[in-house]
Amino acid sequence: MTVHEARLGRYYEDFVVGDVYQHPLGRTISEADNTWFTLLTMNTNQNHFNAHFAARAPVGKIIVNSGFSVAVVLGLSVIDVSQTAMMNLGWDEIRLTHPVFVGDTLYAESIVVDKRESRSRPYAGIVTCRTRGLNQDGDEVMSWRRAVMVYKRDAPHDKGYFPRAKTGPMEA
Predict the structure, then answer these.
(1) By three-state DSSP, how is residue 106 classified?
(2) What Pfam families does the database record attribute to this sequence (predicted)?
C-alpha cells in the first residue's frame, strides 16, 4: 500500500512564464451569498440588497457586491496559483469590467507573467500572474495582476502537517 501525503497545488518549480491555468471550479452566486457578504462587510450601497432601489438604477437590478465577486474569483484561482503560497505580496491593476448579477456563475483563469527566486527566502520564489474572472457567457467581469510567494518543492514548511492516527494505520 502507498500512502500519498496530503498535497494540492503547484510549487515554484512548476510554474512556467506564459502558461495559462483554467481553474477547474466554477461558482454560482446566490442572492444569499451577496446579501450576507454585503451585510457582513457593512456595505450600505442599496444597489447590492434593495431590489426596488436597484430597479431604478441604470443597470436595473441588484449588482453583486464587487468585494464578494473579487473574493470568489481569487478563491477559484487558489488551487492552481497559491495553494502552496506562504503569502500574497500584492494585487495591482484590479479592473471590474462587467457587472456580476445574482445567478451568474464565475470562472477564473490565470497566465503566469513572471517568476523569480526569492532573495530573502531560499526555500521560496515569487510568481506573478494575471487573473481574470469570466461569467457563464464568457464575459470578462474582472482582472488583476497578483504576486505571490510560493514554496519550492523541497521546502519543509508545508509538509508533514497531516496528523498521525493514534490507533495505527488504516485498514481495508
Answers:
(1) strand
(2) MC_hydratase
Which residue's entry shows cell 469570466?
134
The average confidence (pLDDT) of the chain is: 92
Give, in order, the Cα–Cα distances in Å from 31 to each of 100, 101, 154, 165: 12, 9, 44, 41
Segment 43-79, tens digit of pLDDT: 999 999 999 999 999 999 999 999 999 999 999 999 9
CB atoms within 10 A of CB 86: 16
Domain 12-151 has CATH 3.10.129.10: yes
Domain boundaries defined on the chain? 12-151
What is the pLDDT at residue 4?
44
Distance (Å, whole) CA 62 – CA 103: 11
C-alpha torsion sign, points 44, 45, 49, 54: positive
